[in-house]
Each structure stands twice: as C-alpha cells, then as structure tokens.
Amino acid sequence: MWHDVFLAKMGDNLSPFIVHPDFYGMMMDRGKQIPSDNPNGWKAVAPSAIPFIEAEEAPIALDKTGIEKVKADFKAAALRTLKAGFDVIEIHAAHGYLINEFLSPLSNQRTDEYGGSFENRIRLLLEIIESIQEVWPAENPFFVRISANEWTEGGWTADDSAALGKVLINKGVDLIDCSSGGNVATAKIPLKPGYQVEFAEKVKKESGILTGAVGLITEAEQADAIIQNGQADLIFIARELLRDPYFPLRAAHELGYEVKWPDQYLRAKW
Q1: pLDDT for 27 beyond 60
Q2: What global pTM score does this model have?
Q3: Mean pLDDT of 117-144
Q4: Would strands 175-179 and 210-214 be described as parallel, antiparallel, or unpaired?
Q5: pLDDT band for position 19 (cuts 50, 70, 90)
Q6: Catalytic residue at 265?
C-alpha cells in the first residue's frame, strides 16, 4: 500500500486480513538484485551501507531526513490500508526488510541513536508504530512480524525477540508474528515442520504478548496442537494455502468443526 494507485485498483476485492506497508527493499528478479541503474531498479536504503551479498550493490545509509520520510511513508500506507477497508494491519519487520535491518546488529552498524544498543536498534520500529497509531484505530488489531532468530552468530536472537515483546506489549501492539531469517545470506536454517514454533512459544511465555506461529505448518492437527498446547495464539499459513486454497474448510472437517461454506460450494461439502 505504498501508493494511492492501489486503492483504485483494489475496488471491493479485498482480503479481510493483513497488508504489509513496507517497500524499501531492493528490487529482485528471480532471486538476483536488479541494479539501480536498470530501468526497473531503484537504489535501496538501509541503516548502514552494507550489501546483502558482497558482490551486490550496497544500499544508501539513511540519514535523519530519510528516517523521517520512512516514518511518514508508513503512516501514509496505514491510512491507505484503512481507507481500503482492511481491519488488521501488520508491520513487516522481518526477512531482511528495512526495519529488520535496523533491529539486527549485523546489518545495523550505526553510531547514532538508531544503532548500537538494543534500545537504539528498536527505536525506528517503535517510532513507526507510534506514527501508524496516529491514524490506525485503537480497536483494530495491530500486528508486527519479526525474524525472531537470524540463525547467525552475533545476530538477533530469540532472547532479543522476547525482550522486544516486553516492549511492544506496552506500545499497543496486539500480536507478534514470529518468523525467522532472511537478513543474512549465509544463515543455515534447520528447516523442518513447525521449525519456528519455538520462537512464538518463547516470546509468548516470556513477554506475555500474543504470538503467531508460522513456517511449515501444513496439517490441521499440527496447527490445532500448537494452539491447544499454548505455544501460540494464532497460526499463519501461506504456502499450504497456495497448494490447497480450501485448507480452512478441510481443516475444519478433519477437526470436527462446523463452519459456514460459501453457497457456491455447498454441494461439495463433506
């Protein structure tokens, strides 16, 4: 939602859920950076002029004017989101996007009030939250997605995420969506079913904030067990919905819940 053009194009075709108002990352084409001098490229910005991969073009380190523009842009995106009719907003502060870069001690090498200590590195996120809250209704859910672990020595850790949860619960954030990785090209991530659930559980139990679990959650019983065991309060599913767009209907059937089916699909109901 980084431009008004999206409001006109959306019309009434809205998902009732989440929009990510972050557009400051590098342009990619099939996993490769598009140089800024390419007609389809732009110059990325970051907390520090450190490229994601050494051979790639380095971003521009944001100055104070740039940081103020970032906060204003997030606020404007949130207002567009509200006007478009969305009920829930989520800040994407994970996966190597701009806010994630500020949080991480690996990508944030600043020496001003936005770098160095934990308190300084979370400052931009807190200021963006405050900016968005000027236009986002307090009664509407407000989520923040983070990379709860960078899987790299010296990087952001699950302990940092729990500490962040203790801050965000007092800043009007309703839930932390606990993903991981994405900010370090060389990170070794041990992929397995539910591999990030432990982070949602840790943040939830140590900070008291609601959390969402995500990552290789593909079965109804698996998702239900995470909730029933108190490991998270919400399940985020992405790729499984690409494979099976009717996963919620199938899950309800498998778990014995009665849900309302669209009228067009009633003849296919289990």
Answers
A1: no
A2: 0.91
A3: 98
A4: parallel
A5: very low
A6: no
The dihedral sign for the CA sequence 30, 36, 40, 42: positive
- Are the CB atoms for 199 and 148 separated by under 8 Å? yes
Domain at 13, CATH number = 3.20.20.70
The identity of residue 190, as a single letter, is P
Domain carrying residue 75? 5-189
121: pLDDT confidence band, cut at 50, 70 and 90? Answer: very high
- The answer to whether residue 114 sits within a structural domain is yes
Cβ atoms within 10 A of the Cβ of 81, count?
A: 25
Structure tokens at 252: 């309800």
The total number of structural domains in the chain stands at 1
DSSP state of 263: G
Residue 211: phi, psi to the nearest 5?
-135, 155
Distances (CA, A) of 51 to 178, 184, 211, 264: 25, 10, 31, 50
Q: Which of 24, 97, 114, 257 is catalytic?
A: 97
Distance CA 44, CA 41 (A): 9
Q: What is the mean pLDDT of residues 244-250?
A: 95
Q: Could you give the angle at which helices 64-84 and 123-133 cross, rounded to 10 degrees?
A: 40
